[in-house]
Specification:
Length: 587
């Protein structure tokens, strides 16, 4: 969908994407039309009371006035009930439907590869699921009903006016149509303004999120002023965009008030000129004024809701932009295959990979890894080690038929099977703002506290976890901020252990850990990989020494493979790395 697609097109697409928004819609529309029809009937009853009962040459007919007045009162009450019911129904549909939309957008984000999500601004992605959907919900619950009622009211009011005096009715319709054309033009201007506001909101959320997440770096380098300046610039830009948009909306609303006043004055003048001689009685003129008010009222409502409609349309376009993004990490689902039982081997054939808009990072990588083998992946920074690991676990998507696990092409493996049998522990384990136990439980949802404690015991980490203020129930803080880097890795290892994978891929956890925890980490890793196929991106050659085979990467190519003993005796890159390590960089 293009940036300046119409509001109507955006909302129609939204209804197509979210079936819950269409559920019971026709009943809601029927109630809205019924309420509007009863409102339009009231001026007709008032005209009859004035012309027939009050201005009767024989005197006021009190009984007839009372009967018709009662009819008008009942019609008014019924109209209020019908409109209120339609409003509540629409609000309920919007709440349920847009909750589904939030989940759908969130699910689409999780169907994208890690590189796609990481390349986007975190604040912008959060805005798609939160504030953008809120704008849509706000419009659907209130502005949407106003527009729905308005269309019915315009049609019925014009029909009644044509019945009373078609010439005057045509003149009024022409005036309203001219004003509507002005609204259409102004709508486009307002739409672009609201798109700009949503962009500025994303900028603010991104600036705030990064400043808060990067607080330690900001404080360490005394960069408070640049960080504050960036936030201030983003906030000022948002204010300027919102102020301009508010001015445009205010001008539009004021024009509606002026238009309503001029139209009412024109009707009174025309009614006096026409006079009762040509059929414009006092009752007819009064009814006509009521009907003009019913005609102008929806136009005023449209003006009032146009602001929220444009904000909603901007939100819809941005949300649909996420839904329209191609799924680059698709789950084969029911059509996929499960990994075979038992140990898992890995076969990589001619693997190549390039990041979007970036250079080739892996070229023609071919390797076969037997089940139960401990593999170390080494190489200089930027050699492609971590990318290779992510492709093995399908955090990034390899080309078809280049990676097989247990004899099954990885693109054919159902995610449920892949995630339960293959575990990935990144260099910096991410923790959620919950307890230690809750974070470990992600490895196998539903595990009770006894199972969590057993995982730490199996890894030899009982003493460490018991030293925490509340044991496994200790809160770790946002992104694990209450724990050190090494402690976060211990939790990540316990989480991987709980999933009991048959293939384990680690971006080695001991590369940036304080010495006090390094021994515990190494022991936990040894227990974790025992008896399993493991692929460890090794930042320290001590890991390579303890492995069954070593894969050496350089500039995106697999340049060597073999045992530590074989490679260290050779003349290749690994032997040079090993010599440097032995000469003084050993750790």
């Amino acid at each position: 969908m293009t940036e300046h697609a119409s509001t109507g097109k955006a909302l129609r697409r939204l209804l197509a994407e979210v079936p819950a928004l269409r559920r019971g819609l026709w009943g809601t529309i029927a109630l809205a039309i019924l309420g509007t029809a009863l409102h339009v009937a009231i001026p007709v009853v008032v005209q009859q009371i004035l012309d027939v009962e009050i201005l009767d040459p024989d005197g006021v007919d009190v009984r007839g006035t009372a009967i018709r007045g009662s009819i008008a009162a009942v019609a008014m009450l019924a109209a209020v009930v019908a409109r209120r019911s339609s409003t509540l129904r629409l609000a309920s549909m919007s709440a349920y439907g847009l909750s589904d939309l939030r989940v759908k957008v969130f699910a689409r984000l999780h169907s994208m590869s890690a590189i796609h999500v990481q390349s986007a601004r975190r604040g912008a992605l959060v805005a798609r699921v939160t504030s953008d959907v809120y704008r849509i919900q706000d419009f659907m619950e209130w502005g949407g009903m106003g527009m729905l009622v308005g269309v019915a009211q315009v049609v019925l009011a014009v029909t009644a006016m044509l019945f009373y005096n078609w010439r005057l009715a045509v003149g009024i319709v022409v005036g309203v149509a001219f004003y509507a054309l002005m609204l259409v033009w102004f709508q486009r201007v307002l739409g672009r303004a609201h798109d700009g506001v949503r962009e500025r909101v994303s900028d603010v959320m991104s600036a705030l999120g990064e400043s808060i997440s990067g607080f330690p770096v900001v404080r360490a380098f005394g960069a408070e002023e640049p960080a504050l300046r960036r936030v201030r610039t983003a906030v000022d830009a948002q204010f300027a965009a919102e102020f301009r948009t508010a001015n445009l909306g205010s001008a539009l609303f004021s024009s509606a008030e002026v238009f309503a006043g001029l139209l009412t004055a024109a009707v009174v003048a025309a009614g006096i000129l026409i006079g009762p001689e040509t059929g414009m009685t006092a009752g007819s003129l009064l009814a006509f004024l009521f009907l003009v008010n019913l005609l102008v009222q929806p136009v005023q409502t449209l003006v009032e809701t146009l602001d929220s409609a444009q904000a909603a349309a901007a939100g819809v376009r941005r949300v649909l932009g996420v839904l329209d993004t191609a799924v680059d990490l698709a789950d084969p689902g029911d059509g996929g295959r499960a990994l075979p039982e038992g140990g898992l081997n890995v076969v990589v054939s001619g693997l190549e990979y390039a990041y979007p808009d970036g250079p080739q990072v892996l070229s023609d990588v071919t390797v076969s890894i037997d089940a139960g083998t401990r593999i170390a992946v080494v190489g200089q920074t930027g050699s492609g080690k971590t990318t290779f690991a992510k492709l093995i676990v399908r955090v990034l998507d390899p080309a078809p038929a280049t990676v097989t696990i247990g004899g099954v092409p990885i693109e054919e493996v159902r995610f449920e099977s892949l995630r339960s049998r293959v575990a990935y522990v990144p260099q910096e384990g991410f923790l959620f703002d919950a307890t230690v136990a809750d974070n470990v439980r992600y490895g196998r949802p539903g595990t009770d506290d006894v199972g969590i404690a057993a995982a730490f015991m199996d890894l030899g980490l009982t003493e460490w976890v018991d030293s925490l203020p509340h044991g496994i129930h200790t809160k770790v803080g946002e992104r694990g901020a209450a724990l050190s880097a090494g402690e976060r890795q211990l939790v990540a290892l316990a989480r991987a252990w709980l999933s009991q994978p048959d293939l384990l891929v680690l971006d080695e956890a001991t590369s940036a850990v304080d010495p006090a925890l390094e021994v515990q980490l190494r022991n936990a890793i040894d227990r974790l990989i025992a008896g399993r196929t493991s692929i460890t991106v090794a930042h320290r050659l001590s890991t390579a020494e303890a492995s069954d085979r070593v894969l050496v990467f350089a500039a995106g190519h697999l340049v060597e493979q073999g045992t530590h003993a074989e490679l260290s005796r050779g003349q290749g890159p690994y032997a040079a790395m090993h010599a440097d390590w032995m000469a003084g960089t050993r750790s």
